[in-house]
Amino acid sequence: MANSRILTLNEVIIQKQSAFPYAKGELSRLLMHIGLAAKIVNNKINKAGLETSIIGEVDNVNVQGEVQQKLDVYADEVFSKALQASGIVCGIASEECDEIIVFDDEMSKEGSYVICMDPLDGSSNIDVNVSVGTIFSIYRRISPVGDKVTNEDFLQPGIKQVAAGYIIYGSSTMLVYTTGLGTTGFTYDPSIGEFCMSHYYMVTPKNGQIYSINEGNYVKFASGVKKYLKWCQESDKDTGRPLTSRYIGSLVADFHRNLLKGGIYLYPKTASAPNGKLRLLYECNPIAFLAEQAGGMATDGYGNRILEIQPTNIHQRVPLFVGSKDMVEKAEEFMRENPDD
Ligand code: P6P
Predict the structure, then answer these.
(1) Residues at CB less than 6 angstroms from ligand 1
(2) Which residue of 19, 109, 123, 206 is most buried, as measured by CB atoms within 10 A?
(3) Could you count the other beta carbons within 10 Å of the beta carbon of residue 112?
(4) d(CA 244, CA 246)
(5) Closest ligand 1 atom to the C-alpha of 279?
(6) In angstroms, what is the span from residue 161 Cα to ligand 1's centroid?
(7) How far apart are CA 319 and CA 99, in angstroms?
């Protein structure tokens, strides 16, 4: 029956476009190009274990000071080419590139959108077959159409995002995105080569039993974080504790699990990382947008809503507390009651 047929990513994108009466279809086309790039990268990742030419490191350290994986470079190239081919994107800020990527061909200069992206987040997990992800964040440019894109086009607060999402290359490959009308998930069906809608309107549980943090940094955490973690680990039947610790070391995988089951992901600042590790533009803002659209919450642990932080640098880092609303609020309570030493 027609009404029970699975809807593909492109069909849902077009459907949601109708909610924007003045939409010219550009954002829809852009999201479709992202879906295409995701299929290409997914195909390569699925064979990574077999194609020794694509796993391992390249002889380069990126602007983050992280050794680049071959698949980091590959994913960056695939998404950059697909986005430039869309003719709608005038530039990209990528985790893999020190400076913004300016598309200065005539068609792209007329583009209305800019993209912030982490082409392959958690890529150090590739060689051990752990889930990794691509994260993207879409803004309308603020510089005049026809001019070359500038840094200011990317230094917009997260509340200005027109869309955001991630692809998780896991036991199945999913694309999860929002345009501000809720968070929707699609599962890739390789038999037809399409992302098929599997989670129409994702709502994250208000509370949860999972906390995700790298406890190897425990001694470097602020006292508020330490006391929150101890609270999570104490037994208290009334509040359903102790909670469960789950940490994959891949933001997209940890966030996706917590989004579905309920939970909190924390990457606090430490003495050695005074602004935390995660990047505002292409990790924290898109994840925060998706979390809020699913009823969750995202702050820096100090009462600042991630989406309202004014960026000052395209690779700026901020601490991240994201997930179930009651859990983020509880962690924030410990941070307020135990101000930094
Ligand atoms: P750590 C991967 O490098 C990443 O950016 C996120 O995907 C992940 O959650 C985090 O860093 C892991 O960092 O310091 O715990 O290894």
Answers:
(1) 121-122, 214, 249-251, 254, 277-278
(2) 123
(3) 16
(4) 6
(5) 5
(6) 23
(7) 22
Is there a cis peptide before residue 319, judged by omega within 30 degrees of 0? no
The rounded distance, in Å, linking the Cα atoms of 176 and 202 is 9
Task: Say how many Å lie between the CA of residue 223 and the centre of ligand 1.
Answer: 22
CATH code matching the domain that covers 9-199, chosen among 3.40.50.10190, 3.30.540.10, 3.40.190.170, 1.10.3210.10: 3.30.540.10
Q: In percent, how much of the chain has pLDDT > 90? A: 76
Q: How far is the CA of 121 from the centre of ligand 1 (A)?
A: 8
DSSP state for residue 243 in the 8-state scheme: P
Q: Would you kindly state where each structural domain of the chain is located, as residue ranges?
A: 9-199, 210-337
- Kindly give the distance from the C-alpha atom of residue 264 to the centroid of ligand 1, in angstroms, as a whole number: 15
Please say if the pLDDT value at position 301 is more than 80: yes
> What confidence tens digit (pLDDT) does each residue in 31-64 have?
999 999 999 999 988 876 666 666 667 777 676 7
Establish how many alpha carbons lie within 13 A of residue 85's alpha carbon, considering only the half-sphere containing its beta carbon: 12
What secondary structure letter does DSSP report for 16?
H
Evaluate if residue 269 carries a pLDDT over 80.
yes
Task: Residue 250: name the closest of 141, 325, 168 by CA.
Answer: 168
Number of H helices, E strands in the chain: 8, 15
Q: For 119-176, what is each residue's pLDDT tens digit?
A: 999 988 888 889 999 999 999 999 999 999 999 999 999 999 999 999 999 889 999 9
Query: Average pLDDT in the 101-111 region?
Result: 92
Q: What global pTM score does this model have?
A: 0.94
Report the atom number in ligand 1 closest to the C-alpha of 283: 5
The class level of CATH for 210-337 reads alpha beta
State which of 61, 64, 246, 267 you would mutate to test the pocket of ligand 1, scoring each by most atoms of that ligand within 8 A of its C-beta: 267
